[in-house]
Specification:
The chain is an all-alpha fold. It is built from five helices and no strands.
């Protein structure tokens, strides 16, 4: 949209102001001139189209969009890396703790291995899965909300209020 949008806006501006460049004829009826006098002055002085300003504005939006796409990708990659680390840690605990202790014929070593495996697995499940869920929720609430709905245009925040709605109805 970097290239076609400024040209489309220029075309739309020219089309909108195409018929507004004509002035009243010299010998026009005075009643018509009196009726349209103020409107005619306003319509003759329309705003000029600044192509460079529109292009720079569109360039800024394009850069923000690309940075947002890279940020979203990096955010999802962090979540994926955390999930991959969880999977690898579970595999390491299974291979190096549980299977290693099953190779011994001693019941005491087997009991210690099972307890260590259970503690490590529960620790990984509780800590890493909770962290993963927290990061995913944070990502959805903060990053997605900011990209999709929030625009810092300088408008004062007006929270939702049932009292304001009832005042407007009365």
């Amino acid at each position: 949209m970097l290239i076609p949008k400024p040209f489309f806006l220029k075309w739309e501006h020219e089309r909108r102001h195409q018929g507004h460049q004509y002035a009243m004829l010299e010998g026009a009826d005075e009643s018509v001139v009196a009726e349209l006098g103020e409107h005619n002055e306003e319509s003759n002085h329309h705003e000029e189209f600044e192509f460079s300003e529109i292009f720079v504005h569109q360039l800024i939006h394009t850069i923000e969009f690309v940075l947002g796409a890279v940020s979203n990708t990096a955010s999802y990659l962090r979540l994926w890396a955390l999930s991959l680390a969880h999977s690898e840690l579970s595999t390491v605990f299974y291979d190096k703790v549980l299977l290693l202790t099953l190779g011994y014929n001693n019941i005491f070593i087997l009991a210690i291995g099972v307890v260590v495996f259970i503690c490590a697995t529960v620790g990984v499940l509780l800590v890493m899965e909770t962290l993963s869920a927290f990061l995913h929720a944070l990502r959805l609430h903060w990053v997605e909300f900011q990209n999709k709905f929030y625009e810092g245009d300088g408008y004062k925040f007006a929270p939702f209020s049932f009292a304001l709605i009832s005042e407007d109805e009365e």
